[in-house]
Write a structure and sequence with these properties.
Blueprint lengths: L2 H14 L8 E2 L2 E2 L8 H15 L2 H15 L5 E3 L1 H7 L3 E6 L9 H14 L4 E6 L3 H13 L2 E7 H6 L1 H9 L3 E5 L6 H13 L5 E4 L9 H9 L1 H14 L5 E5 L4 H7 L9 E9 L10 H4 L1 E5 L2 E5 L24 H9 L3 E6 H15 L5 H15 L6 E6 L7 H8 L1
Parallel strand pairs: 4-14, 5-6, 5-8, 6-7, 9-10, 9-14, 10-13
Antiparallel strand pairs: 1-2, 3-4, 11-12
EC number: 4.2.1.20
Organism: Desulfonema ishimotonii
Family: Belongs to the TrpB family.
């Protein structure tokens, strides 16, 4: 079967809704690679998720919170000055940075915390890298009156000090994790370790489309509101679907949230953007799909950064949110099926895009989003002025100003 036939067959599979299967597999990826201690908690979570996903009361409460608490729908903004500056495709920005707490993370944390409430859980835990998922979790924990612990690598505590303060103000306990490189991978390791001993009364709010089943599909379902809104908005504004979607990929939740509602639209190209750090030819990058190999990390099979002995290697990015050596299993399937293309952007390219968006549109993007912007700028220059690119601006850049100042000195 050639590549075109494979893509056509796989699109039929998307349309028939077969992924994930009943065991949480996206083709050869995903699944549930955890110890026996966590299995009862995951099975309880899966049963609750399946029950409330179609529960009208749950869905009504979730939608009301997205509207009245989060501030949805977020705008789709035509970046006319930037588009003219580049001289190519028209760039539209999906403004997830304008949600309450300033990033797409709030969509998923609201959904999971509401599920925790329906399950009768009184405590939540989370891991965080850039701090946006931690802030969003602390926010919804306060909203629902739950105790909250957020595990965060010591290096990220240093890089994201303003978000640490925000979490503490919201009543969360921030637990520094000094193991490894003190980044997102180590925080998730520690959160999973803690959860093993606290499954009876604690709900673990995972921040991306990663982790053991049912987390990848559950987070995608809570984040797909991004793509659903963008689809309707671009049809209303431009009268047609976009030619290309672009989003950054660490674990991959904002990208999957944008991509999934367009998965059956074969005319819409999807481009995920990983962090190339100091260059993919070095060992200082986080290009998991570009340079990784298939392995198991944090309870799920996917592409990971690992050495020849299967040991997970460290990732690097100027963006704490992309500094992760794994990726959601559905992205691995999209890559293999040819449904999405994955590129990588260096720290320097991301910082250049950060400055360009500030000056051209008066918008300060998160460094994660700046990676997507950098790739969109490359793509736009290769396309005609009648083409359309939608970029997911997944978060705002206030949290990153210290890092940007440090790099631009």
């Amino acid at each position: 079967m050639d590549k075109n036939q494979a893509v056509a067959e796989n699109n039929k599979a998307f349309q028939s809704g077969v992924y994930p299967d009943e065991n949480g597999h996206f083709g050869p990826y995903g699944g549930r690679y955890v110890g026996e201690t966590l299995m009862p908690a995951l099975l309880e979570l899966e049963a609750a998720y399946n029950k409330y996903l179609s529960d009208p009361g749950f869905q009504e409460e979730f939608r009301a919170l997205l509207t009245h608490y989060t501030g949805r729908p977020t705008p789709l903004f035509h970046a006319k000055r930037l588009s003219a500056h580049l001289g190519g495709a028209q760039i539209y920005l999906k403004r997830e940075d304008l949600t309450h707490t300033g990033a797409h993370k709030i969509n998923n944390t609201l959904g999971q915390a509401l599920l925790a409430k329906y399950m009768g859980k009184k405590k939540v835990i989370a891991e965080t890298g850039a701090g946006q998922h931690g802030v969003a979790t602390a926010t919804v924990a306060a909203l629902f009156g739950m105790e909250c612990k957020v595990f965060m690598g010591t290096e990220d505590v240093r890089r994201q000090a303003p978000n640490v303060r925000r979490m503490e103000l919201l009543g969360a306990e921030v637990v520094p994790v000094a193991s490894g490189t003190g980044t997102l991978k180590d925080a998730m390791n520690e959160a999973l370790r803690y959860w093993v001993g606290a499954v009876e009364d604690t709900f673990y709010i995972i921040g991306s489309v990663a982790g053991p089943h049912p987390y990848p599909v559950m987070v995608r379902e809570f984040q797909k509101v991004i793509g659903q809104e963008a689809r309707g908005q671009i049809l209303e504004m431009a009268g047609r679907l976009p030619d290309m979607l672009v989003a950054c990929v660490g674990g991959g939740s904002n990208a999957m949230g944008l991509f999934f509602p367009f998965a059956e639209d074969e005319s819409v190209e999807m481009v995920g953007v990983e962090a190339a750090g100091k260059g993919v030819h070095t060992d200082k990058h986080a290009a998991t799909l570009g340079k990784g190999t298939v392995g198991v990390l944090h309870g799920s099979k996917s592409y990971v950064l690992q050495d020849e002995n299967g040991q997970i290697t460290e990732a690097h990015s100027v963006s704490a949110g992309l500094d992760y050596p794994g990726v959601g299993p559905e992205h691995s399937m999209f890559k293999d099926f040819g449904r999405a293309r994955y590129e990588s952007i260096t720290d320097t390219q991301a910082l250049d895009a950060f400055k360009t968006l500030c000056l051209q549109e008066g918008i300060i993007p998160a460094l994660e989003s700046a990676h997507a912007m950098a790739q969109a700028m490359i793509e736009a220059k290769k396309m005609g002025t009648d083409k359309i690119i939608v970029v997911n601006l997944s978060g705002r850049g206030d949290k990153d100003l210290g890092i940007v100042d440090e790099y631009l000195k």
